[in-house]
Amino acid sequence: MASVELERLHKLFLIDSGMVEVKKKATALESGKRMALELESARKEQKLAEGKFHLVHGEQKDLELANQQIDDKIKSIDKQLFSGAVVNPKEIENFEHQKKMLTQQRSSNDENILEYWEVVPPLQRAAEAAKKHADQLESELNEWKVKAVKFKSELETQYKELALKRPEAAKGVPAPLLARYEAIAKGSKGIGMTKVTKEGTCLECGNGVAERIIILLKSDQVATCEECRRIFYWNEGVS
Ligand SMILES: [Zn+2]
After folding, report:
1. CA of 224 to the centre of ligand 1 (A)
2. pTM confidence score
3. CA separation for the pair 17, 156 (Å, rounded)
4. Cα 226 to middle of ligand 1, angstroms
5. Which residues contact 143 (CB under 8 A, 6 or more apart)?
6. CA–centroid distance, residue 216 to ligand 1 (Å)
7. C-alpha 112 – ligand 1 centre gap (Å)
């Protein structure tokens, strides 16, 4: 068993490490910023993907519209040619020539439209996928926000409870030991105590604990880790 002083110090340590833990959890709440940034970049990618799709799809639509207009013109030429109203050979030749040019244009447009048929659907799918991804991130962020508000207030309550217990726990520890512990904790991310594991290493830093330190601990003396300088809490068979 550890000495009474170390037992008391250990109680204080449990409060302190609890407070460190709460602070860590509160830091994890910062992940909301990362999620918001991810969403922002996903929306940018969505806009880019949609922009590419709309541009190319617009070009395809323009060609299809152009072909409709060509069809209308050809129909109108045919109508005039077959109505018998045009009899002048030169005028007929002129119409035939126009019709030939329009037909050529139409077939060239058709070739391009075929290419668009290849290109447009994958762009459309990419734009849809980008939107789905961004929507998903947005809904995750919104869900997270609701949880975070609740979690934050829980953490604040936990922290306050621990902070209230601390002065009483600190009172029981002899002043020199308390000062030593607090100095170590300050330089060790708030964790001023450690244990010896079953494997004979320091729980906090993993350094091997020398036999002479174990002997000190067994005789209820205060001993610190040679590597991380934290005070050992000793209990037979500590894990
Ligand atoms: Zn250590």
Report:
1. 8
2. 0.64
3. 15
4. 7
5. none
6. 16
7. 72
Ligand 1 centroid to Cα of residue 72, in Å, is 87
Give pLDDT tens digits for 23-38. Answer: 999 988 888 889 999 9
Please enumerate in sequence order all residues whose Cβ is within 8 A of that of 166, keeping only pairs 6 or more positions apart, or say none.
12, 15, 16, 19
Question: What is the 178 CA–ligand 1 centroid distance (Å)?
Answer: 19
Q: Catalogue the E-assigned strands of the chain.
A: 193-195, 231-233
Over residues 97-108, the mean pLDDT reads 96
CA of residue 139 relative to chain centroid, distance: 13
Q: What integer pLDDT is reported at residue 238 of this predicted model?
A: 53
Asked whether the beta carbons of 98 and 77 are under 8 A apart, the reply is: yes
Q: pLDDT value at position 236? A: 64
Distance 3 CA to ligand 1 centre (A): 20
Q: Which domains does the chain have, with CATH numbers?
A: 4-24+173-233 (no CATH), 29-171 (1.10.287)
Question: What is the Å distance from ligand 1's center to 238 Cα?
Answer: 15
- pLDDT mean across residues, the chain: 93
